[in-house]
Design a protein that fits this description.
Length: 151
């Protein structure tokens, strides 16, 4: 499982070093083969190869004929997907086109989300965290009451 948030700096070529905490699980899952793509303007998603294959199959199976919204989403995610191979130092090169779409500068945050990782600009991640900390407790309790999640 990929968990936790890690502050990372991109080098001048757009490479980042995958945190050591994530390297071992990635090796176990996929031998380090990764796929990067986006699904919004806010962040990039990094999938280990087996997780990406599942996502890709689901996207390809979506009923896009006659559904412009699903077709656009499928095109967005599949059309921007790129295979990445970490180098000997555990670094990956993020494609410049994707870095530009999510407005990355040199400071990013890598967030483990179980079977995938998200890459956020440090500023955007800090904003998301602040918004999450400001959630109304009564509203949260009401929404949690609608689920089977018990914290």
């Amino acid at each position: 499982m990929l968990r936790g948030a890690h502050a990372i700096s991109l080098d001048s070529k757009g490479r980042l070093a995958i945190p050591t905490k994530f390297r071992t699980p990635l090796q176990d899952i996929s031998g380090s083969h990764l796929y990067v793509t986006l699904e919004s303007r806010d962040y990039l998603i990094l999938y280990p190869e087996p997780a990406w294959r599942d996502v890709e199959a689901q996207l390809l199976a979506m009923p896009v004929a006659g559904n412009a919204v699903l077709k656009k989403f499928q095109q967005l995610v599949l059309g921007h997907a790129e295979a990445l191979q970490p180098d000997a130092a555990g670094r990956i090169l993020l494609p410049p086109s994707l870095r530009k779409l999510v407005r990355f500068d040199a400071e990013v945050t890598m967030v483990g989300r179980g079977n995938r990782m998200e890459l956020w600009s440090r500023t955007a991640w800090d904003e998301q965290t602040a918004a999450a900390l400001d959630i109304d407790e009564d509203e949260l309790a009401e929404e949690l009451g609608k689920t089977t999640l018990r914290l």
